[in-house]
Amino acid sequence: MDAGRYRAGVDIGGTFTDLLLLDERTGEMIIGKILTTPGDPSVAVIRGLQALLAERQLDPAAVSATIHGTTLITNAIIERKGAKTGLITTQGFRDALEIGREKRYDIYDIFLENPEPLVPRAWRREVAERLDETGRVLVPLNRMEVFDAVQDLLRAGVEALAVVLLHSFRNPAHERIIREVVEAEFPALTLSLSSDVMPEIREFERTSTTVANVYVKPIAHRYLNKLRVEVRQLGFRGDLYIMLSNGGITTCEAASEYPIRLIESGPAAGALAASFYSQLKGLDHVLSFDMGGTTAKICVIDQGRPLVTTEFEVARVYRFKKGSGLPVKVPVIEMIEIGAGGGSIARIDELGLLKVGPESAGADPGPACYGLGGSEPTVTDADLVLGYLDPQYFLGGKMQLDRARAEEAIRKRVAEPLGVDLARAAWGMHDVVNENMTNAARIHLVERGRDQRRYGMMAFGGAGPVYAYRVAEKLKLQQIICPPAAGVASAFGFLVAPMAFDFVQTYLSSLRGIDFAHLNTIFDEMEARGRALLRQAGVPDEAMTVSRLADMRYLHQGFEINVPVADGLLGPDDIPHLQANFDGAYERLYKRLNPNVDVEALNWRVIVSGPRPAIRVQRVDHWPPPTDATRRGERPAYFPEAAGYVDCPVYDRYQLAPGMALRGPAIIEERESTVVAGPKARVEVDAYRNVVLWLPTS
């Protein structure tokens, strides 16, 4: 086997760890799926890679690179398993973490809880320094005061330190003095400066982001180093790269320094996979629908690009209630996430109503049908009872499902309390999940001014193709695409991502008041940092691309919008272009302009990217006629249109040739996922072996 012929993608989910080896010559995918090991996620990664290599008897040297995404950072913050973290801030700002935005995220909840800060008050220290709003020094920083504060925190047991001083995004000099003191006197202390992590306006968000970064920094460093060593010990010659939340990939060194940028690395990869296939199909508007074992993620993709936001929350008190979490200001592919996955647990609430999720059985103990100790009825149990899943072919037959356990769990916890039969209870669970996901998708689209009727759906994840038809039907979408290896699409998404890193710097000014010499210096410095990072990863300068953006708003508005900025040196002649770009972006969002109001810019952004990997996807333009091998047989499956079970044909996806057409109802099985097509569906297989479902227009 030729050295470096394959690249590996590894996605750790809440229930399963997905693995994929891509042959860069032929486009062939070698796929693996293994239960996640929550105690140490790297165990499942190494076991899975070993199994893939053994399956094809591949030499590890054939793998040129491994790209990885992880939920480690999110989980460490949610479970409060990070380092004991201290905070040094400007005198008078010790309680910024608890004061927050001074508003309630739910004005009607009298029992409302705010998330506990990652740094308790006893581990926060103030220093007597002060800059004005322009960054000019008003009160110099005293090094001895810094030394005493750090020493005091170390005596209290602090292991990591966040430094967030007022107006340091304008002038980082005082924060850098603190770094000099720490590196000289306390070199073992893990440190993050806000001027490095988030040199951006808004004190609460900047403090929260910097604290979160250093809180998980020791964990990220240990985990990535351990995994990197273990991958090398397998015999892999290529390096280990990490997926960022914005859809780029970076080195382990950069990821270890800024681990907060990994907060949504796994879901980001799924959106990139959907983006890749939407471009392959020539679709301008796609709704990415990724449903796994724990959650469902929905992302809007326009013109082949997923939406990106810098507004994100982690560790919400109410997991799916905006405003109840810790704000993190890093670029993240924007998606709505709800507690609807294969492991989502069904229950009857105090009003006697059926609820499903957001609680999940996860990988341990898992759904009742896994036979691993779970007894709660889950979505996967319902799908098994409804006939959508084959108990003998789950994960390609590697894992047997126990239908009797699923029936018992649903009967005891759902059917008997509701006074309905088993089939009706299972369908109720299935339909409640569909309604939850449909409502979330509809709101997500409406809030962004999108017309849902213009969108097709890209369905993937282990459970996505099972639920796509009903969700699309409720949303009145006409087309669903289920790509090959849909169950491990996020792992594929890692392999289509470019090397990339982005930077931000606050410089608040009206358009007419911009000091362009200062602005050009800001852009040059950010670009230089980005190019240096990509050079370390082996990307040549001529292969790098640089894009620039600005966060702009009408004067005194509370929120900004993202506006493109031209390349090259900027000057006063560029003001009309900046205004025109702002007007275009604002009008697309809000359908109106305020021409008599001045425009100001707050933050300036630079994204430095390497080339996108050239992915060869197998296309079949000539195919043999269909054979009986495509049909595995049939089994009873529940469809409400028939008011019960019908004998539904079951097809082997691996035998479906491009050009084939089927009618629903139909079940199409592959090892990692199952496509369920309702009675009104028309099913086709395209030249890339995507299974395409067409729904009636009325």
Structure in a nutshell:
It is built from 16 helices and 35 strands.
Structure description:
This protein is α+β, with helices and mostly antiparallel strands and 698 residues long. The strands form nine sheets. Strands 13, 14, 15, 20, 23, 24, 31, 34 and 35 form a nine-stranded mixed β-sheet that branches. Helix 3 links the parallel strand 5 (85-90) and strand 6 (124-127). The longest helix has 31 residues, at 203-233. The model has no long low-confidence stretch (mean pLDDT 89).
The biggest beta sheet is recorded as: 9 strands, mixed
Approximate strand percentage? 25-35%
**C-alpha geometry:** globular
- Range of helix content: 25-40%
Name the descriptors.
31% helix, alpha+beta, 698 residues, globular
Write the layout of secondary structure elements.
Elements: E1 6-12, E2 16-23, E3 29-35, H1 41-56, E4 63-69, H2 72-78, E5 85-90, H3 96-99, E6 124-127, E7 130-131, E8 137-139, H4 143-155, E9 160-164, H5 173-185, E10 190-193, H6 194-197, H7 203-233, E11 239-243, E12 249-251, H8 252-257, H9 265-281, E13 285-291, E14 296-302, E15 305-306, E16 308-309, E17 312-314, E18 326-328, E19 332-333, E20 336-338, E21 344-348, E22 354-360, H10 379-385, H11 403-418, H12 422-447, E23 456-460, H13 464-475, E24 479-482, H14 489-495, E25 500-510, H15 516-536, E26 545-554, E27 561-565, H16 575-590, E28 599-609, E29 631-639, E30 644-652, E31 661-663, E32 666-669, E33 674-677, E34 682-685, E35 691-694
Parallel strand pairs: 1-4, 4-11, 5-6, 5-9, 9-10, 13-23, 23-24, 30-32
Antiparallel strand pairs: 1-2, 2-3, 7-8, 11-12, 13-14, 14-15, 14-20, 16-19, 17-18, 21-22, 24-35, 25-28, 26-27, 26-28, 29-30, 31-34, 32-33, 34-35
Helix pairs in contact: 2-7, 4-5, 9-14, 10-11, 10-12, 11-12, 12-13
